[in-house]
Amino acid sequence: MNSSTAALDFLKRHGMDPERVDPAREAEKMAADMERGLAGTGSSVPMIPTYLRPHGIIQPGDCAAVIDAGGTNFRTALVRFPGRGVEVSRLQSRKMPGIDRPASWEEFISFVADGVEPLLGETDRIGFCFSYSAVMGPDVDGTVVCIDKEVVITGAKGQKVGASLNAELERRGIHGKKIVVLNDTAAVLLGGKADHIDAPYDGFLGQVSGTGTNTCCVLPLNRIGKLGLTGEGEMIVNTESGMYDGIPAGDFDLALDRASREAGSKRFEKQTAGVYLGELCRLLLAAAADEGLLSPAGAEKARALGPIDSAVIDGWAAGEGLDRISGSEADSAFARTLALALFERSARCMAANIGALLLLTGGGQDPARPYCVCAEGSLVQKSRCYRPVLERMLREELEEKLGRRAVLRLVNEATLSGSAAAALLNR
Known about the structure:
This protein is of the alpha/beta class. The chain has two domains: 1-50 and 186-411, Hexokinase, domain 1 (3-Layer(aba) Sandwich); 63-182, Nucleotidyltransferase, domain 5 (2-Layer Sandwich). The chain is 42% helix and 19% strand. It contains 14 helices and 15 strands. Helix 8 crosses helix 9 (296-304), helix 8 (274-290) packs across helix 10 and helix 11 (329-361) crosses helix 13.
């Protein structure tokens, strides 16, 4: 048995083989769970209403100040829509408060105000992309549930993001500013829509595949049963699909979950997101060493591995840097097969997620008018292995088996343009 075959057998024995995820079948299961989320009846997918209108007219020359707070970076910019395309100016990037040391909510809001204040002489609209857990309200403001991603902001829970910033601006003598709060996935959808406004698409989805995993879609108001709304109109719904728990879990998914700070939650994200793929690969290699599937030198390297990220295993999948784990050519082939399998499984899961949204929205049935998946994140933009598999799954699984056509479109700086669009469309 060659090393690649041995690696595939090892994956299957532990329930980690990519083929275990059938995107078309899983899409139907996930769509049913999303329906329960919309009704508010016992779903693992929250289907959070954003209260954001996805449609409207942005007048040529309109501009908004944009705040992008998420992960380790904090950015501010002025975004203008000149008529076609988007112009980003006065972009500044700094480290988020709460990384090197804990910061209070008041310190955070003061920091945000310092960043956006120089831009407010040119606009009264602010789009605030807040990429942490928050509950949205009809006032398009978000109430903080928690701040994570290695950022520590004390006193944040229960605070209203936009209202807190407005209060600080008014304390500084700056009045009359309208703040719209949204998350990064909704911003990606709006940014992609603005970038492809004239294209013949049936509709738009937002997808983030990077450090984390999430998607969003646009639905009629009367489809969001838990809100009890009637009448015309549509709203962006943030699925928080990273919390879905319906994909079959393998032995090392369960091991990673048990060791995580949020054991029992975000199962789908832990199977798909860049922040977890490196650790899954490390667990796989350590177990392979214990099972005698690596050479003595390779086993020693596997057991000595520290934390690794998805960029490392993307290199392994491409045949690069394998000396870090390999004691022989057979070890290299084994490790490369594991890395490729993790990216393929992640892409299969995301194809299921996209398929579920196509079924939910009824979109993509006309081959001439596919759904546009507006995508951003390190996996989909930087990995050499992930995107080709995802695009193949969209064709082979969703189009050929479900009869739903979707195309993937990467959008540069979608969080900036989308946050500006949200501020201008939701006046």
